[in-house]
Amino acid sequence: MAVREKSLRGQVFDKIRSDILKGHYQQGDELVECTIGKELGVSRTPVREAIRQLELEGLVRLVPNKGAFVNGISARDVTDIYLIRSRLEGLCARMAVENITPEQLEAMEEAIVLSDYHAKKEHYEQVCEMDGKFHKLLYEASGSRMLSHTLSDFHQYVQRVRQVSIMNRMRLNKSGNEHTEILEAIKNKDADLAEQVAARHIFNTVENLRHYNLEEILREEYGKENDNNGKN
Fold it and tell me: Taking the complete model, does pTM exceed 0.70, yes or no?
């Protein structure tokens, strides 16, 4: 029974967080426990626990005697996430040198080939999907559940920004080349190079995003108040 309850709480948490990150809730929207519970077909208890966990992640703020309200993601959050990811993905690539399986190598190569194919066709949604698959496989190849979990969470947090970055043709081509460099370094068992190119790959995304108005992108995704979030 305890396992089922824990699984239910996890499902509710994942659903609400996904809805926030996909922009289904806007900045400042109130999360009403009974309403969400009815929508998901669960009691208020797992919803309340999920909201408390989301507060710890910074996606929700609890206001005494008022309720729970959506924070969303700020431009500063996005930049911080990518800078942290640059370090962690470097570590991930280093660990993958020792732990990657032949099946994972083959799957990563396939993701690169398919990404290149869709890029030439300007199928940006599919390119984004293959980009996500490549990174997911890299996380798994590290052999570390903790590292994979952390990086997967960060990846979800910046879905909308990732899509915008991928639609930049120049960045798209460079990103594909960088994926190949990461994979080649791993295949050659060069841990230092794998760490270096993987970290640089994510850092280059940060540099590319400087050409965009992140506040505007996030405002469209999460609501008009988002550009004020994180400026304090």
Answer: yes
